[in-house]
């Protein structure tokens, strides 16, 4: 059966659920597209792994009880890195690049091309998992990101290797309403600073990710894009901010971490997040309410 693929292409009148998928929207002339095609062949070496300063380090907590998580993080809407809660997931031992070739190699998935979805030259295309792995994971000449894709609905076999974190039962929504997305890419993928309308558990299966978070209370210091499509995405490049253009960005209080395999980051509703992969990386996100 045809997979339930949904490209996060140019959004229609309704806003896409997440910030992704907007920048490349809009019409482009052929020459611009050709230029984009050439640009995306060139991969700029990503900067090294940043050092997280102690004053901005996110708290870590190991296997908190439901009550502890609810009272200290969910109700006050404080982000936290949870440890020890996915060690038992079969994916932690099973998943590798080779494994994806075996179980999903022939399946077609949407891939984002270009470093970040706010770049002009960003685009998306459909390709098989085998082609994605050959072109963007094994040969890292340019950045391709299998991002925000409901891979587990497409390939239910993979769903057996993960489970919905117990803490989601603290929400008011039904389990069926939880959106589970896969994020698979090489070193150097960047999700620009943006916010989403649901709570999120971002579980790291392999590879590391550098994550910066800012409270929704700092929104005005983060210069969201104007207009409907990208208003949940900041104009500021977190790792190289233009402080002349965005002077109040220095007032925004950052929390950060290097998310390691086996760790799960709780990102409260509307918390701004910026994420750069430091290795070949696979994450699973759970959006819940
Ligand atoms: O890991 C990433 O690149 C982005 C994840 C994200 O934005 C999300 O889970 O909402």
TrEMBL record:
Residues 19-29 have a biased composition (Gly residues). It comes from the Eukaryota. Residues 144-289 form the JmjC domain. It is found in: Nucleus. Transmembrane segments: none annotated. Its cofactor is Fe(2+). GO terms for cellular component: nucleus. One of its GO terms (molecular function) is histone H3K36 demethylase activity. One of its GO terms (biological process) is protein destabilization. Residues 1-31 are annotated as: Disordered. Keywords: Biological rhythms, Cell cycle, Chromatin regulator, Dioxygenase, Iron, Metal-binding, Nucleus, Oxidoreductase, Transcription, Transcription regulation. InterPro entries: Cupin_8, JmjC_dom. Its main location: nucleus. This is JmjC domain-containing protein 5. It comes from Anser cygnoides. The lineage of its organism: Eukaryota, Metazoa, Chordata, Craniata, Vertebrata.
């Amino acid at each position: 059966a045809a997979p339930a693929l949904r490209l996060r292409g140019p959004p229609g009148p309704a806003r896409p659920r997440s910030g992704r998928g907007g920048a490349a929207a809009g019409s482009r002339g052929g020459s611009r597209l050709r230029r984009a095609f050439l640009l995306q062949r060139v991969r700029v070496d990503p900067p090294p792994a940043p050092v997280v300063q102690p004053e901005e380090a996110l708290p870590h907590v190991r296997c908190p009880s439901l009550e502890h998580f609810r009272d200290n993080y969910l109700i006050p809407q404080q982000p936290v890195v949870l440890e020890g809660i996915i060690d038992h997931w079969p994916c932690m031992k099973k998943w590798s690049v080779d494994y994806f070739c075996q179980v999903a190699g022939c399946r077609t998935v949407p891939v984002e091309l270009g470093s970040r979805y706010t770049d002009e030259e960003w685009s998306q295309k459909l390709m098989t998992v085998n082609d994605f792995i050959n072109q963007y994971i094994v040969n890292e000449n340019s950045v391709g990101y299998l991002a925000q894709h409901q891979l587990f609905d497409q390939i239910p076999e993979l769903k057996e290797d993960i489970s919905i974190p117990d803490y989601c039962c603290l929400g008011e929504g039904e389990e069926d309403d939880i959106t589970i997305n896969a994020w698979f890419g090489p070193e150097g993928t960047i999700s620009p600073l943006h916010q989403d309308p649901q709570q999120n558990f971002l579980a790291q299966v392999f590879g590391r990710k550098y994550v910066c978070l800012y409270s929704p209370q700092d929104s005005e210091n983060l210069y969201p894009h104007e207009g409907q499509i990208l208003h949940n995405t900041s104009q500021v490049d977190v790792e190289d901010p233009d402080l002349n253009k965005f002077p109040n960005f220095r007032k925004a209080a950052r929390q950060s971490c290097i998310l390691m395999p086996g760790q799960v980051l709780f990102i409260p509703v509307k918390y701004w997040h910026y994420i750069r992969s430091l290795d070949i990386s696979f994450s699973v996100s759970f959006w819940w309410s």
